[in-house]
Amino acid sequence: MKLVPSVAYLRVYKQAFVGYSMALAGWIGEYLVNQSSLPKPIFFSRALRKLNFKFMGEEREEDEIIQFFANKKVGVTVSHEPFNDTLFLQIYPLKRRISSAMTVRAQYIEFYDQFVVSIEPAQRLPRGVRSLGINPLILEEDYPLSMPYWGMVHEDWENDLKLLVMLNEIFDELNDKEYRCPVCFSPLRRESYSLKCDTCGFTFVGEEDFAEVIEQTGEEEFAF
Known about the structure:
Blueprint: E1 4-5, H1 16-35, H2 41-50, E2 54-60, E3 65-70, E4 74-81, E5 86-93, E6 102-109, E7 114-121, E8 137-140, E9 143-146, E10 150-154, E11 163-166, H3 168-176, E12 189-191, E13 194-196, E14 203-206, H4 210-223
Parallel strand pairs: 11-14
Antiparallel strand pairs: 1-10, 2-3, 3-4, 4-5, 5-6, 6-7, 7-8, 8-9, 10-11, 12-13, 13-14
């Protein structure tokens, strides 16, 4: 089972770091489902490289590792507390108020024997918006008890495929209402059964056309 954030709440706050938080939360959820543990620091070096971030350095203390990443407009810090089974990510604009930043929290709650992944505002929401209205991902014995508005992801880490498979109704909404890329908010272009972002390199497809797009991708690779 694999998970990826959808475009369900782009209407709430159209900022690039919201899109990044969805992608990162989706990958953490995918890792938890497959590995039953929180991802290690090397995971984020690879994940953020896929989102066009550069590794800027890290700090290591006795019970915490903090990694720093940045692109032209957005910074990301990833705090690992391995002894507490906790991850805390903050995605923030480099040249704007930090109040508009987003956080991704992933942790194991021993009392309930559950892993929880949530997306939340760092400080406050835009004027007129009371909440993001997104349930956290809650996993108990590898089974999702609570799911956000997420679909699926087909991720090939070795070949850098970057193909996001959405539930049909979510992909149709992305296509029909001409939303920008859910990850970086750049314009999308239609190509056969999919939507492509030339800025961050992600391809979006509905689940019913997933097999067709995979087949086309394989044919393109074979042609080279």
